[in-house]
Amino acid sequence: MTDLVDTQLRGDDAAARLPSAPLVHLRRDGVSVVVETRSVPAAAARYATLPTILHWGADLGPVDADALRDVAAALSRQTRPGTLDAAWQASILPVEGDMWAGRPGILLRREGVPVHLRWSSVACTPSADESALTVVAEDATNALRLTSTIAIEAGGVVTVDHGIEHTADDASLPLADLEVDWLEATLPTPKAVDHLTTFAGRWTREKVPTTSLMPRGSTVRQTRRGRGGHDAPTLYLASIDTPRDRSGELWAVHLGWSADCTYRNDRLPDSVDLIGAGELLRAGEIRLMPGEAYASPTAYFAWSGTGLDGLSERFHRFERARPDHPNTPRPLVLNTWEAVYFRHDPVFLHDLAGLAAEVGVERFVLDDGWFLGRRDDTSGLGDWYVDPSVWPDGLAPLADHVHALGMEFGLWFEPEMINLDSELAVRHPEWLLHAPGHVPSPEHLSWRSQHVLDIARDDAYAYILDRLDSLVTEIGIDFIKWDHNRDLVEAVHDGRPGVHAQTLALYRLMAEVKGRHPGLEIESCSSGGARSDLGVLGVADRVWASDSNDPVERQDIQRWTQLLLAPELVGGHVGPTTAHSSGRTTALSYRLATSLMGSAGFEWNIAECTPEERVVIARWAALYKELRHVIHTGTAVHADVRDPALRVVGAVGQNRSEAVFTIASVATLEDSLPERIRLHGLDPQASYRVRLRNEIGASRHGFATPGWMSADEVTLPGSVLGSVGLQIPPLWPAQALVLHLTRV
User: Is the pTM of this model over 0.70?
Assistant: First the structure.
């Protein structure tokens, strides 16, 4: 049997009458995407076919048209007429009608019946710089238009966007509403791929990787929490062999969406392999009337030929090239939550701000407990007015004091949530986002005693926007910690599942608040790291990686969050001596070293610090300010170490003249003579002065001290540091070194 297009066109000379298949070669930043297209008008053929991706991965170089045809021939499985009933090469939106036996890329229904797509025309338009391709496909029979864009962005990240439009005219072509079950982006991976890495986790233990053999068939991971969730897949990562930090080929996908997701892979015996992702839609959530359209969230694909660090470099370069990426030095933060919880005392907080300024804090954030009736977590959400019983003079005096000390003032909100014990819930019970007939009551307490406010409603949205806008103006707020502390359960908006509408309203609300207040920054926090994706970071400026302030847990939480997100986007603070999230007690030096490698700050009542501790944290604050330009603009590097108790995190400056590394332990080392640690990413032709930065506090590391540490510094060639490494001491559990390298 011939391929599908041949079969549908079949006269004996069908192959001769088929138009040639133009090949489009997209190239940028070390990545190539080769697309085979057929632009077939309705007059020339019964059905047209969507483009297929022949190659996504390493840059093929400047290949001319003749050579590109040879590339296509080299990648071809068979010539016509073939004998297999299969679509060995999947289109950009594979469906069953293409003889694709995997999970369809799109599933549409009318009145419960699947819609079988029949493209009457497909037009493909490359961009002028040959880094993007736009595909517009028309289905006249079903009154549909598909618009897809495949683009190679900065860093070599490939974005895929699909949109479907119901084009029927009620007068000429009356058709029932179109229901979208799903619309997912996919790209092919080589048959040599044999491992799949996904992520899961729980509260205070986010971003836990699991690597397994690539499953056979079509498989999915889904989230149904109305937010990403602490167990969000985050990335699907396909690799040849198990992924390593500095070597090996990887193909990954991330969905820029802050709610329900489907991550998928298809490994079929007779077709190319695919990975992809898309929004998980509830039944009936998207119904398109004539003239209406649905756009899938952007899927971000990245290939690396140099392991996990190569993958991070691509994502980080992409993020830093965005026009709204934060490009000012990331301020050192103090958040008051663990200092006072709900016990707000204006005098104490005034004094705490003074202490914060003394040790070098640059952003002072007042957390939960400042608004009407908010003495615990059972009441007040929704009543966004300063509580005069606690703050009789309002918050402006505190904000003015903070500004006078040279710091920014931040305030905590949870705009999408509401307590039943609030004035807003009494006035507007219809604003709650829940299933009809399942009306919550005080006796039936919800998750964390709170419910969800339906901000997709125009009136609820307008109320929240007005309160945020007014408070930012009246108080002088520079920063919002935007929290979201529960899943969406049976979310119904306007008679339909409401997660999609709620998420779009969130993005719109964040963007509008920032638009009214240029310079205002927002942190996305969702019980910690339950909403940390490139969707919310299109409107926010950083994410809170986890509610865990245990630095042992944080070593891995931050490492895997930063696989996708650049360090300057990831909040990581110094907690108290004994972590509230785990009960573990750790040394101040270890907590400081762990926080250093992100967007740093304190989640700690520093008024309880001893004078000696305040001296140390002031020195460390100065160190953070000295080194953050490297950490927040440099290339992230790690080391493939043998000992599972070791963690090595580094940042190498853009011109490789400077670097910062932390070497830490999370458990007892296997050997009393540890392995040497290789410091990667340096210029092998240059020499570097390696300094041990003791600002984090002097402490004995294990029971032996290597010679280079006795002098606190050593000068070595980059080639030696990268291939031989440094001998480290036998670190005890939860100890760390901070190294600063400068080219000499």
Answer: yes
